[in-house]
Design brief:
Layout lengths: L10 H4 L1 E8 L2 E8 L6 H14 L3 E5 L2 E5 L2 H12 L8
Parallel strand pairs: 2-3
Antiparallel strand pairs: 1-2, 3-4
Length: about 90
């Protein structure tokens, strides 16, 4: 099976773990901090992956969870935020 992520996404190099998860009705990737925040180069790569696959992603920087993805995902995320509902990724 081919490796989806480049070598600099390995946790010991990146400082975060990429977890496949579900949020609401969406399959997502979740970048979970493991000592470091994802860098700009990682977020740029994830954005390209999202555009190529349609799979949204979440990441945490300084304790704040941010999501990126297609319009239906962003709309749902906005609904959650408008209602002050917590974003819980399983």
């Amino acid at each position: 099976m081919p490796q989806l992520f480049p070598d600099d996404f390995w946790p010991e190099r990146a400082g975060f773990i990429v977890k496949r998860a579900t949020w609401d009705e969406f399959d997502v990737f979740f970048l979970v901090p493991a000592g470091k925040n994802p860098g700009e180069e990682h977020l740029n790569w994830m954005t390209k992956l999202c555009h190529a696959t349609g799979i949204p992603f979440f990441y945490i920087i300084d304790g704040e969870t941010t999501g990126y993805g297609p319009a239906p995902f962003v709309e749902r995320l906005s609904e959650y935020r408008a209602k002050n509902k917590p974003v819980v990724v399983n």
